[in-house]
Design a protein that fits this description.
mainly alpha
Length: 196
């Protein structure tokens, strides 16, 4: 009887896994491509053939982080159709995320704060911010408030603040739970203003 051997991940998958770990843990700017290719166990030429260079690899890393974050938020929202509950669930997702032992801040904020940023990296960060704004605009519109843009803007500030504060809060999830309480109040005020 033949035994099946596990298929080794492709060079692309190994590069993405290595960059995800190293860029997030050590920073995009301070992690050189040599460290990534060593961790991935691939030849330097593979990185350039697959991604064209570090900038595209950073962008792919950030896009992978965005996809996983979107899935995490959607999973937190899955149990409800209520727009208020869906909005508050975003802060539950943040609380779970920042409670992970490997949490080192928002990968998008971290990458944006580091210099120099390449064109592909900036585009990936912009895609994240576009998704974030679009998500909160839709959630705000779904609540039926008259000024959904103002509500979305307030929620984004809370979101960003929760992620930034979590790095120094004890416990880390306290920042997200505080942001959730404030979001609940903002939702109530926005609804009251709309009905007045």
């Amino acid at each position: 009887m033949a035994t099946k051997t596990a298929k080794r991940p492709s060079a692309r998958e190994r590069l993405l896994a290595a960059s995800d770990e190293l860029f997030y843990r050590d920073g995009v700017h301070s992690t050189g491509i040599d460290a990534v290719i060593e961790k991935a166990g691939v030849a330097k030429g593979s990185l350039y053939y697959i991604f064209g260079g570090k900038d595209e690899l950073v962008a792919a890393y950030l896009r992978g982080r965005l996809e996983r974050w979107r899935e995490r938020v959607e999973a937190a929202q899955a149990g409800t159709d209520d727009p208020d509950a869906k909005t508050l669930a975003v802060f539950d997702a943040i609380a779970d995320y920042v409670s992970l032992p490997e949490y080192r801040g928002c990968p998008f904020h971290n990458a944006a704060a580091e210099a120099p940023a390449g064109e592909a990296q900036q585009l990936a960060i912009k895609e994240y911010r576009t998704w974030l704004r679009g998500s909160f605009l839709q959630l705000a519109a779904d609540t039926g408030v008259s000024d959904s843009e103002a509500l979305a803007d307030a929620l984004i500030v809370l979101y960003d603040g929760a992620l930034a504060t979590a790095g120094t809060a004890e416990p880390a999830r306290a920042a997200a739970m505080t942001a959730k309480r404030i979001a609940r109040l903002i939702l109530a005020v926005a609804k009251a203003s709309s009905s007045a």
